[in-house]
Amino acid sequence: MYPEDAKKTFVLKGIGASPGIVTGKAYLYDRLDSLISFYTLSDMALVESEIKRFQNAVAKSEKELLEVKDKLSNIGGIEPSYIMDVHIMILNDGAFINSTIQFIKDMYVNAEWAIRMTVDKYRDIFDKVEDDYLRKRFNDIQYIAQMILRNLSGKKRRSVEELELGKGVIIIAQDLSPADTAQMKFDQVLGFATDVGGKTSHTAIVARSIEIPAVVGLKTLTRMVHTNDEMIVDGTSGVVIINPDPDILRRYEEKRRLEREGKTEYLKYAQLPAVTLDNYRVEIGGNIEFCEEIPTALTNGAEGIGLFRTEYIYINREELPSEEDHLASYRRVVGVEGLAWSTIRTFDLGGDKFFSDSKLSKEMNPQMGLRAIRFCLREVDLFKVQLRAILRTSFFGKTKLLFPMISGIEEIREAKRILNEVKKELEGAKIPIDDDIEIGIMIEVPSAVIVADELAKEADFFSIGTNDLIQYALAIDRINDRVNYLYEPLHPAVLRLIKQVVDVGHSAGIPVAMCGEMAGDPVCTMILLGLELDELSMHPLAIPKVKKIIRGSTLKESKELLTKVMSLRSSVEIRAYVEAFMKERFPHDIPEIDQ
Fold first, then answer.
1. Of these residues, 202, 226, 491, 539, which one is catalytic?
2. Could you say which of 41, 71, 270, 334 is the most buried, measured as most Cβ atoms within 10 Å of its Cβ?
3. Do 324 and 457 belong to one domain?
4. Structural domain boundaries enclosing 16
5. CATH (domain of 188)
């Protein structure tokens, strides 16, 4: 069984990435063995049959290893043969085999799940070994486990979307890529908790999108948790509790009840307009990644879709999406009753969001590499397929087209030139489109801020993407947990950049939106009011609270707050001042700040 201290209660503090509280069983996710199924066995006869199935898979694995060893011996040299001997020794290790059989017997679970728990037990043991070389021998155990799992399935490994988790689990991982989460059955996932990441990392954004609690940046979580451990994930306060005692469980049940009541209270503001006490109106949009998020966006008061991220249509497909695939996806968003507009961002592939393509090599610094508009302008045929679908969609409802990561005038002009080519092709084919579709530029690169006056001549609107703008302006990797403490939306440089964009946009007569995570932060709401942004677009769950704060504020006091803040010299001073001001002004709506 597990080591004696395995059931000790641990409390870890990370970054609350998606609000809410959930309790459940942990599933330690590893993309190398993410294909493990889970089911329970109803009687002892099935248990004995499952043990036999496991033993047959072990025997088949041993036979394969011996065949490999025989082939390697013909190559010559000691090392290949030695490696095979190590793997065979592990496979024949009575402790490994007996532990797995015992899990099947004791817990009435299938062999795959029992193997996973045995591997977890060995991981815990090896993590305590001080010798680095010996600690890395755990990789050999993982290899053998994978071999047995493949032979249990009797076929090619299945994808994680086929993962059967019963009543649902909390996914525990070092990190989760877009590919990992895009394949998961979200109705079987209660929450996420990861070692790395920040509020704007992929895992955080997806968790908020599907409305499940998540905590990221926990550093050592995967070394402390076992599959099937009882867990609490508090995405509101950024706390994860492993093996909570009954008193802790009761307290968190009460906290969860209070959060539900609070959510109901905020929903009273969801369908009201975002108008200040002195009649300044802000349009409120929702950020989505999946069409399935539309009902949530409407329920929480989104007036339109301020950002529809389109990358997911590309991920985990054997073939590239066709124009009709794109059109079908966009038609589920554009023209939906209750949405006044939908802003579709052209794909921001690249960075950590490449789809599988052997032509795309890994880059040393992918966030500043071939991504977003740069990728589109290089892969023009792919770009045109998407543009055709967006233009066709525009016929069915108010559609805005948004180009990401524009860094200079040449890129927007080239993007518009390609767009005009596509328009002429559609017009020639007599396919109806909206001739007046609005073209927007995403401002997320400092160079775009500097030349915003020139960019404004080419655009119908600006949309500030604070996630990347902050990252590039402050020279930090926002998902690197070693430096994400420097990620500060209220940094004076960031505020000046935003103000410059708004001022330039308004001088040119075009509206300015914000679609980054900063837009949904209630601490920043009055600052953004003072900056006179025309539209705030955020994850839908943030909308009701932001609307409540806007409706309880005035533009006059927001501008006075901004003036005071802009006179302060450091991000520490600004953060402290704004948090104190907002806590006093809206005591029930601003969360307690960790000191």
1. 202
2. 334
3. yes
4. 4-31+165-263
5. 3.50.30.10
pLDDT in tens, the chain (595 residues): 334 444 678 888 888 888 888 999 998 876 545 557 778 898 999 999 999 999 999 999 888 888 777 765 654 444 445 566 777 888 777 788 999 999 999 999 999 999 989 988 888 888 777 776 666 677 678 778 878 888 887 754 444 444 455 568 899 988 776 556 655 667 788 999 998 888 777 678 778 877 889 999 998 898 889 888 999 998 877 889 999 888 788 878 877 876 776 778 899 999 999 999 999 999 999 998 878 789 889 999 999 999 999 887 876 456 888 999 999 999 999 999 999 999 999 988 765 444 434 344 444 455 566 677 888 888 899 999 999 999 999 999 999 999 999 999 999 999 999 999 999 999 999 999 998 999 999 999 999 999 999 999 999 999 999 989 999 999 987 666 677 778 899 999 999 999 999 999 999 999 999 998 899 999 999 999 999 999 999 988 889 999 999 999 999 999 999 999 999 999 999 999 999 999 999 998 887 654 4
Query: Is 291 one of the annotated active-site residues of the chain?
Result: no
Q: What is the CATH number of the domain that holds 129?
A: 1.10.274.10
Are residues 277 and 254 located together in one domain of the fold?
A: no
Last residue of a domain, which of 135, 157, 179?
157
Quick one: 104 and 148 in the same domain? Answer: yes
Task: Copy the structure tokens of residue 593.
Answer: 């700040």
Q: Provide the whole-model pTM.
A: 0.68
Indicate the burial class of 361 (C-beta count within 10 angstroms; 0-12, 13-18, 19 or more). exposed
Please indicate whether residue 515 is annotated as part of the active site: yes
Full DSSP string of 402-462: EE----SHHHHHHHHHHHHHHHHHHHHTT----TT-EEEEEE-SHHHHHTHHHHGGG-SEE
For residues 173, 175, 179, 181, the Cα torsion angle rounded to the nearest 10 degrees is 50
Q: Where are the alpha helices (DSSP H) in 36-75?
A: 44-73
Of 326, 515, 524, 539, the active-site residue reads 515
